[in-house]
Amino acid sequence: MTRKRSNIPENDAALERAERTLSKLSSPSVDLAAEYGALADSYRGLLRKLNKTLVISDTYQMQLRELMKQIEDTTYKYRQLKDVALPLCVYCKNIRTDNDYWQRLETYFGTHADIMFSHGICPECIKATTRQLGTWQQRETFPDIPVTLESPVVPNAPKPAEDEVLKELHSLLQRSAADGNPLTPQLERVVGKHAKLLRRFNKIFTISDGYQSQLMDLKARLEFSARTDLLTGIANRWEIMARLESEKSRSERYKKNFSILIGDLDHFKEINDNHGHMAGDRVLKAVAEILRGQIRTEDFCGRWGGEEFLVILPETDLPKACSVAAKLLAKVRKTAVPWEGRRISTTMSMGIGVFRPGMSIDGCLKQVDDALFIAKSGGRDRFSMVAE
Questions:
Q1: What DSSP designation does 304 have?
Q2: Angle at 74 between CA 135 and CA 58, to 5 degrees
Q3: Which entry of 36, 104, 136, 280 is 20 to 30 Å from 7 by CA?
Q4: What's the CA gap between 275 and 344, in Å, rounded?
Q5: Which of 180, 156, 197 is nearest to 54 (CA)?
Q6: With 0-12 CB in 10 A as exposed, 13-18 as middle and 19+ as buried, what is 59?
């Protein structure tokens, strides 16, 4: 009896031996029991490999469940941002309707900080104005990631390399089908399930990368918003204190002084009482724009609190600081803010102090605040200084 020789995979001793035995079945020297034992050993080896594959598949399932849990945990806050709109950008003054970033941002603040905002910062303005906060360039807060919060899939994501285990399983399945192995249907189902699980795993992995990019982007925006006064668009008290500490460190390192100005709007309560709080907000924004527009690029200004503003003048002595204060007060004095057919005028009082190496930030601020009190007591619309 002869049998056409099949395509035997390389290094498969059991199949080669079986082919030789089948080709000489009529020979009386064939020991069928020994051949059966050899095939049984090969079969057991195949079963061990199949069980190993099943263990790997179970491991992938466990990893898949862990990954799903991580996605749910890391996107919990992201999914909360849905309800109320924040359409007005404090920098470009445009109402943004290109995505629902504003709704997400306000809902987040409303849930986590018990604060309701009426303004926000659009992504383009964040990137265009980060230099105004100085220290952000060193923090590398904005990675090169998409600014959209819409799609969870990373664009142009690299295609994952073919899984080595899956390649081995496909090769095993081909050999099994070619040899008519009775385990071929079961093995085919296992390979199919493994391939399906692997596709799902790769898809979820890609979605996870997308969510992580979105969360990094959202974190950068929220951190920027946390350091910005959303009404006036300039730095808030938190960022001012960080900048003061930075200037203190630089002053002590290079033995350079810097000046601090604190300005307070005169009779601001009367503006709120006579014209309403929205008119008062308009005045605050106008004054913030004046301060930001009248100082140097290396200078820094922020909203200290309420109707108070703080200006930092690096490497500036007291006479030059007084000159800057006089210019700022004159500009505020000449500005009339339009409101409902009328024009609202205001003035500002200002205290001036110089930080010298060895001083504390709190001590210097106390001196500037005392100087501001003197300016207020002396008739307002003027500045007072701490003598050197």
A1: E
A2: 135
A3: 36
A4: 9
A5: 197
A6: exposed
